[in-house]
Sequence to fold (223 residues):
Amino acid sequence: EIVMTQSPATLSVSPGERAILSCRASQSVSSNLAWYQQKPGQAPRLLIYGASTRATGIPARFSGSGSGTEFTLTISSLQSEDFAVYYCQQYNNRPWTFGQGTKVEIK
Amino acid sequence: QVQLVESGGDLVKPGGSLRLSCAASGFTFSDFYMSWIRQAPGKGLECVSDISKSGDTTYYADSVGGRFTISRDNDKKSLYLQMNSLRAEDTAVYYCARGHTILDFRGQGTLVTVSS
Fold:
């Protein structure tokens, strides 16, 4: 099973600042990597797939990069609605696995 | 718009059974693989099961294989998860999602609690 490790566990950022979230895979997942956003009491929301393709309706301030084992989600200028938990997920090898999440909180 | 409405969650005793349903609308249901994903309280996400467009191919996580059965009815635009021999560790919010690699969550989930 591929282990996905996200860092940091918590990221404290001021509104308007940039946030950089990392996700590392225990073995290569090529570009088969997705990012999700989850707010309290809500289902996850797909942000990025294919490591760098934004899902429909996702603002341009969200961008993804990386391939192989190292991936990054960047939020260029944090808005109030962006404070949430973010998960990465690999879908290269069964079972698909998620990272443990990075909580982005208001500084 | 795309909507997925999960239902069927409840409090059940260990060893008991439950059937979850997911009603889909706003898209051509038969064109998509569908998945069940769960999230234990305060924990991360786990892919539980998925099913092909026609229903002839299924996948189960090792943690639920032999106990859970996924199925679908394309005429009714519905997805199901029959859960048997439930354990305390099955306690979670269960989400259905469109797709089976890239997951499109559009519902609110349904809570399954396994406790005596």
In short: The interface with chain A takes residues 44-47, 59, 61-62, 95, 101-109 of chain B (CB under 8 Å). The radius of gyration of chain B is 13 Å.
